[in-house]
Amino acid sequence: MEVDQTARLLITCPDRPGIVAAVSNFFYNHGANITALDQHSTDPEGGTFFMRLEFQTPHIDTSCSVLERTFADAVGERYSMDWRMSYGANRKKMAIMVSKYDHALLELLWRASRGELAADVTMVISNHPDLAGAVESFDVEYHHVPVTPKSKADAEAEVIKLLDGKADLVVLARYMQILSADFVAQYPYQIINIHHSFLPAFVGANPYRQAYDKGVKLIGATAHYVTSELDMGPIIEQDVIRVSHRQSIRHLMELGRDIERNILARAVKWHLEDRVIVYGNKTVVFG
Amino acid sequence: MEVDQTARLLITCPDRPGIVAAVSNFFYNHGANITALDQHSTDPEGGTFFMRLEFQTPHIDTSCSVLERTFADAVGERYSMDWRMSYGANRKKMAIMVSKYDHALLELLWRASRGELAADVTMVISNHPDLAGAVESFDVEYHHVPVTPKSKADAEAEVIKLLDGKADLVVLARYMQILSADFVAQYPYQIINIHHSFLPAFVGANPYRQAYDKGVKLIGATAHYVTSELDMGPIIEQDVIRVSHRQSIRHLMELGRDIERNILARAVKWHLEDRVIVYGNKTVVFG
Amino acid sequence: MEVDQTARLLITCPDRPGIVAAVSNFFYNHGANITALDQHSTDPEGGTFFMRLEFQTPHIDTSCSVLERTFADAVGERYSMDWRMSYGANRKKMAIMVSKYDHALLELLWRASRGELAADVTMVISNHPDLAGAVESFDVEYHHVPVTPKSKADAEAEVIKLLDGKADLVVLARYMQILSADFVAQYPYQIINIHHSFLPAFVGANPYRQAYDKGVKLIGATAHYVTSELDMGPIIEQDVIRVSHRQSIRHLMELGRDIERNILARAVKWHLEDRVIVYGNKTVVFG
Amino acid sequence: MEVDQTARLLITCPDRPGIVAAVSNFFYNHGANITALDQHSTDPEGGTFFMRLEFQTPHIDTSCSVLERTFADAVGERYSMDWRMSYGANRKKMAIMVSKYDHALLELLWRASRGELAADVTMVISNHPDLAGAVESFDVEYHHVPVTPKSKADAEAEVIKLLDGKADLVVLARYMQILSADFVAQYPYQIINIHHSFLPAFVGANPYRQAYDKGVKLIGATAHYVTSELDMGPIIEQDVIRVSHRQSIRHLMELGRDIERNILARAVKWHLEDRVIVYGNKTVVFG
After folding, report:
1. Are C241 and C218 in contact (CB under 8 A)?
2. Active site amino acids of C
3. β-pair partners for C239
4. Helix, strand, coil: what percent of chain B each, to 5?
5. Element (H or E) spanning D270, and its range?
6. Is A215–B285 a contact, with Cβ atoms under 8 angstroms apart?
7. Of B231, B239, B258, B274, which is the active-site residue?
């Protein structure tokens, strides 16, 4: 695989005239060809401005670190920007946590193996041993870290040690344990969970049973960033599938699996391509 | 328009062997050709059985009232059935209640005028005068019945008088007043409301604002039967549309209008074709 | 309604570094606040570049005509741009042509009347008298221009005279006559047609019958610009709806109507908001 | 896994009164509880009638072979039925043919291993060796049967020998060789292919390129039975996904993969559950 020479810049700042000109001038003057640019403003008068910019690094006239420092001085400060650059050449590291259901996990491993996800999968961590074989056939490390009510704190400590330096993103691919606020705080907006309902409907346990009991005509799933409040973090992606009176709860779960794995894969892909900006408890997702 | 010779039978009963044979024999023996048959059982052992049957009346060997009486004796009682027959020749009467938004109302009037809905629209009742002109261009009566907190009981009494004998179905096409439990009790599972969210998410007021604040990636609407508990009646139909960070609340409302009118039209159509059976707080909808 | 102070710029040009900077500088320097910017390149090396820019006119330092001349000199020529500006204050004029089916026509009239379409509907022209009443209830002129094989040329001449100066866009809302190449040439990429199939499947007559005979599981519709080659112009928008063995041709037509009117409305809306750029026989549609 | 005691009956016959009664009486009299019944008629007068019936075998009063013989005599002949029964206890055997793309193959293997498909996968046959490892990790036989223009007849002979007695269904999961008419004739309506376009659009080679060149706004895939005419057999299932000017051909292929594997999995599932009846060049699919 050849080196990816694309770099990306994400910006959040107060909206005011001149931002696009300032940013595009900066990159043009440094020889960085802009190949994609997307922007959004919550309100042209007094709103918040978001921008995603993709540029090519081969012809830039300096090193990345100097480019970043210069950008900070020349543009970032002037417009009170919250910004970050990332480089395709520094592939992100992704760890996956899972319990017993394999569908979301396998979908991610398969997509990663065919180059659809801009990350290296560094490990899979599970509180059960069941999926070790499936994971190892993808040549990925599998760590079994059992969790009991009593061992929970120790188990988290072990997970944190395993992840150390090896996870820019942690994906909960149907991991059935609730992470502590401390754990979550170490990976701010770097943990993505798939919830098996169309949030905010059916928060909590057994969403398919809740959906069945309510008699809804569509079931869904939601990929969101994990925050300290259960099932309440910023939503990245959602989708639904049509159901009817004919489906039992077991059938709903079967249909739901297909939605879950597709949505999680989309959310992870977008995160890895730096398409998601969190603001407040919501997300801007640049397509 | 020629007379519609289709009749329909809806059945709910405890499931046990022999029901299909008993029903189909009955109709065959009376010369009624079965042209559609749909069934559902919640569980073959001890479950509840639902059936929808369409049959043609031209060759039946007796009058409809005798057919019904004979069916009650020969089949209905034996299987402890809750059942009802309806006849295409007796077109249903539909009244529509609306406030100021015209989209759901016009959708129904258009479809009715094109012959897509198996009912005659007998009247439109509104607590505002605004839509009188639009309705009258369809040659449909428009009744303006203002509602104030003080006049609410009187207004309902007036509506009930207007509806008397002229409404087999009452459709709330964005009628912004809450109907009293007494009113609802007079039309059990004969009042259909469109709620502008994907229930059970965003119950209550301003669902589009709630959806905006939550940052959901799909917005929806729900057509349901009205019961005495607000927004909690059996769901008939739901659908969603994709949104993003780009939409303001006003845009969500605009997009939502298209969903609302389509879903309401589908739910009304299905109800009028006797495709919906309520059980518990859910519905069986035969496609 | 207050004056719309938004203006839009559409650009097509060979891709090369510096375009975004040049354009955004130009607008910044003239006091025009950029409120939306979308771009696309078919290939960063030697591709074609497309841009749509929305800007606000209140604070620009000159008249629109001077702004355009200056842009041509300072930017357009330098980058070999094909470009055009349009102003919300100059509302577009839209004429609709129709035969007997009313669904697509009414959808457009209704959306126009509630301010969803950025145009004034100047007239409806039909080769049949049937829809005069419906149209006039929207306070829109109705012209009945009958067409027979013999009178076709005269009829077109009459239509052209009616449209003269009153149509920036002509929408064929199920107009069942084929326009001559001469007619089409007078409105290059300014005539939008709705074809009742998912093109390129089922070109030509009776697409619903063709779909029925083929047994497809989805039927669709396509909004496209009209060119001299029948049903072959650049596609603006398409959508589909699920069908099954249960639908007769008549049912397919009924379901298809809903798709047709929605798609046509979307395509017309996008065209009017200057979101569509034609290149080759395809379109770029900025969302 | 416990023995599946469900049996299914599929019927095609000329429509006339009394069929449902005759069939349901027959099963009731033999102690077979009907747990699902679906029917369709192309026309109540002189049309063709289709029925799918699921019944439970535990309480039937005879062996399956006697039941079938009795049904033939008592019902099948009288109504000129084309019919067949199948039994959950006799699991179907499924062989998969593939070339180099793994997505459709893996989707089927995953679903089979989770128990979602009512069949045993007996083997995978490929004209390339590439996917042997992936297949063997599912404990399924992999046969590499290379095909060259010269060896084509011999290769087919080898495949036929491999399949002998081991394939009630052959699935072409992106098998890039065209099967001979002789081969196809041995498996009438027992070979399912996934075509990577929304047929009948883009028949033949490189459908994604054709879709790209045409500028369609949706791309699709089609699962169909293989007949001697290429890409023209009865369609079982289709679906589409939205695309835009932003996708290159490579992206269309990537998006298309997701559609292909889902549609093929659905079509295979329905076939295995005896939900599909072919008539003419179309299918009835009971949901």
Report:
1. yes
2. 231
3. C221
4. 30, 30, 40
5. helix D249-272
6. no
7. B231
Instruction: Say how far apart CA B104 and CA A46 lie, in whole Å.
Output: 36
Give the model confidence (pLDDT) of C204-238 as tens digits: 889 999 999 999 999 999 999 999 998 899 999 99
ipTM at complex level: 0.93
Distance of CA C72 to the CA centre of its chain: 26
Of all residues in chain D, the one with the smallest CA distance to B32 is D17
CA distance A35 to C45: 10
Q: Domain segments of chain D: what residues? A: 6-87, 92-285
Q: Inter-chain contact A200–B220, Cβ cutoff 8 Å?
A: no
**Separation in Å, CA A96 to CA A143, A170, C135:** 10, 6, 60
Q: What is the dotted CATH code of the domain comprising B92-285?
A: 3.40.50.170
The residues of A annotated as belonging to the active site are: 231
Nearest-neighbour CA in chain C from B22: distance (Å)? 26
Q: Does D114 touch chain A (CB under 8 A)?
A: yes
Contact B18/D at CB under 8 A: yes
Closest CA to B263 of B184, B176, B177, B172: B172
Interface of A with B in 235-274 (CB under 8 A): 235-240, 244-246
- Chain C contact present for D150, CB below 8 A: no
**Residues contacting B14, CB < 8 A, separation 6+:** B46, B47, B48, B49, B79, B80
The arithmetic mean of pLDDT across residues B163-192, rounded, is 97
Digitized pLDDT (tens) for each residue of chain C, 287 residues in all: 578 899 999 999 999 999 999 999 999 999 998 999 999 999 878 899 999 999 999 888 889 999 999 999 999 999 999 999 999 999 999 999 999 999 999 999 999 999 999 999 999 999 999 999 999 999 999 999 999 999 999 999 999 999 999 999 999 999 999 999 999 999 999 999 999 999 999 988 899 999 999 999 999 999 999 999 988 999 999 999 999 999 999 999 999 999 999 999 999 999 999 999 999 999 999 98
The structure tokens listed for C165 are 């100066």
Q: Does C130 touch chain B (CB under 8 A)?
A: no
Burial class (CB in 10 A: 0-12, 13-18, 19+), A255: middle
DSSP C146: -
CA distances from C167 to C185, C264, D164 (A): 14, 17, 68
Domains B6-87 and B92-285 share a fold: no
- Between CA C196 and CA C254 the distance in angstroms is 11
Q: What is the CATH code of the structural domain delimited by B6-87? A: 3.30.70.260
Location of structure tokens 């999968």: A121
* Residue located via tokens 């009164």: D17
Whether residue B1 has pLDDT greater than 60: no
Tens of pLDDT, residue by residue over C46-90, are 899 999 999 999 888 889 999 999 999 999 999 999 999 999 999
Q: Chains contacting C with at least 3 CB pairs below 8 Å? A: A, B, D
H or E stretch at C218? strand C218-225
Dist. CA A177–CA A125, nearest whole Å? 12
Within D37-170, residue ranges assigned H as helices are 64-71, 103-113, 132-136, 152-163
**E strand map for chain B:** 6-14, 33-41, 48-56, 82-87, 92-98, 119-126, 142-144, 169-172, 191-195, 218-225, 235-242, 276-279, 282-285
Joined together, the tokens standing for residue A24 give 């595009």
Q: How far apart are CA A243 and CA A247, in angstroms?
A: 7
For testing the chain D interface, which of B5, B19, B25 should be mutated: the one with the most D CBs within 10 Å?
A: B25
**CA-based end-to-end distance of chain C:** 25
Residue B202: phi and psi, rounded to 5, are 65, 50
- Of C198, C197, C187, the closest CA to residue C226 belongs to C187
